[in-house]
Recover the amino acids of this structure.
């Protein structure tokens, strides 16, 4: 069995090969290993750098899991935790896929129910925010709902990291097909994207997008949505511009 220092040395070497497209030089990332679980902390430029870093660390021999607490740089106007928490809750409350979910907000150690579960309860989601980091806890009815909740949080301006602690009840086995299904749901939810014009294929947690988009902004938006989906490790964007 390798020592913790040996595993960390390999992880630091692997980090040097991550293509940080959003930085002129590699960002400072702190690592801590606890019984094979590698905790990542620091700041990166965007969700692409965050996802690529975590994916690279999962390939390091001796790392059994990665706890990704990397934050993305906040290029927008600063948003207070209360404002961010309210905005995430509003997203969940407005989304049709969570209409039967109990939604609550956690602030100052207390949980405030914003909506009770519907007659056909689809779970419960509690939203907490600290220093721009959104934590989702509770349970939902499918992996697609778990992933969609995370993306809805990422879409809110000022969100720097999403810690998705939601559970699926009853439990489901994850797969590439589940990632594809979740991304299709995300694209259908995104008003900026015509989901019917975009194809999605996932293999080995690598998502390939094809089809067409009316503008380059829409093309890039669809790719961004894919990077936000929990479990995705890379995205290949083959969407072409219409006309």
């Amino acid at each position: 069995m390798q020592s913790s220092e040996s595993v960390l040395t390999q992880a630091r070497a692997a980090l040097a090969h991550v293509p940080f497209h959003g930085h002129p030089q590699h960002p400072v990332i702190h690592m801590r290993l606890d019984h094979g679980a590698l905790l990542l902390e620091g700041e990166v430029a965007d969700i692409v750098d965050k996802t690529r870093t975590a994916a690279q660390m999962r390939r390091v021999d001796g790392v059994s899991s990665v706890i990704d607490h990397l934050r993305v740089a906040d290029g927008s106007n600063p948003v207070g935790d209360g404002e961010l928490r309210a905005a995430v809750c509003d997203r969940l409350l407005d989304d049709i896929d969570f209409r039967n979910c109990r939604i609550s907000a956690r602030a100052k150690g207390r949980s405030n129910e914003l909506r009770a579960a519907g007659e056909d309860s689809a779970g419960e989601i509690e939203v907490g925010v600290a220093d721009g980091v959104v934590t989702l806890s509770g349970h939902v009815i499918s992996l697609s709902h778990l992933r969609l909740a995370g993306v809805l949080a990422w879409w809110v301006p000022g969100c720097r990291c999403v810690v998705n602690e939601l559970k699926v009840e009853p439990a489901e086995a994850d797969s590439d097909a589940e990632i594809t299904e979740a991304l299709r749901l995300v694209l259908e939810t995104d008003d900026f994207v015509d989901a019917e014009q975009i194809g999605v294929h996932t293999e080995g947690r690598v998502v390939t997008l094809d089809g067409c988009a009316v503008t380059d902004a829409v093309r890039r938006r669809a790719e961004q949505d894919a990077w936000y989906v929990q479990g995705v490790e890379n995205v290949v964007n083959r969407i072409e511009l219409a006309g």
Remarks:
- The mean pLDDT is 94.
